């Protein structure tokens, strides 16, 4: 198939979907966005403004973008990029099924480790490939989406992923094909155990990770996660500059040593925050069950206690239920909560 003629649909035009889809459009790809009415209205009015932590800035006008609320756009798609929250995975897979699409390669651009299996159960005749998204994207006002951290997309090695890789390469959107993606997804999940810490703190990621008291909470979550994975005979893949076991040691250091040794870890836009923080601020359902909850669930299966992860799940859900955004908790308040 000629890459110029492939039809790509972003199934779920939220922060990640708009950023990745918009970057693909900037590279000349034929992209359509399946969006909620509120997002369609916003993009139809303002277009997309995409920025990242390096200072890159891309502006797309509304007439360069094809936003729709009609699931029928899925029917003739060649590549479908699922970018919805994990709780909506099953519903989106059923939407694809009901559209009548019978040939698309489906990519899961989602947090967690189980979305690909969920999609494949509903779409058994489709090729379903996991993609690990290493960076966070925060929605600003008027169609502005800002990527605040670095990293390349990792996708399962498969010949049907080559068309998407070509489009991503043209758009200068880092995209690498990898073996052992399940291991990589577990590695990303471990890194994401900081998401609830950041969401509860209410401060930018860089500021939070530079605070040793917050880091100690994150390290406790990581140690629980590593113990659980070891007991389950799961080896997490390396998705950061250093192996996760080394990261635990660096994160545990006093501040002056940490800042000396963690320059790559601190290469974060000062404005960057976790998507879980953004969900709390916008009164949207949080994904904590698909991140920390996976560690707790697996811990019960292998009889390993996970008290810190359980505490963070409880506090995040309390904040979600209150509907007041981040509770702006200090490290001590998190430990006493």
CATH top level label of the largest domain:
Alpha Beta
CATH topology of the largest domain: Rossmann fold
**How many strand units?**
12
Q: What oligomeric arrangement do these chains adopt?
A: single chain
Weakly predicted, low-confidence segments: none
Molecular shape? globular
Class per helix and strand makeup: alpha/beta
Tell me the fraction of residues in β-strands, as a range: 5-15%
Share of helix, binned: 40-55%
N-C termini distance: 56 Å
Overall average pLDDT: 94
* Cα-atom radius of gyration: 19 Å
CATH superfamily of the largest domain: NAD(P)-binding Rossmann-like Domain
Which CATH architecture of the largest domain?
3-Layer(aba) Sandwich
Query: What's the number of helices?
Result: 15
What is the H/E order?
EHEHEEEEHEHEEEEHEHHHHHHHHHH
Largest sheet report: 8 strands, mixed
**In what order do the strands lie side by side in the largest sheet?**
5-2-1-6-7-8-11-12
Number of individual domains: 2
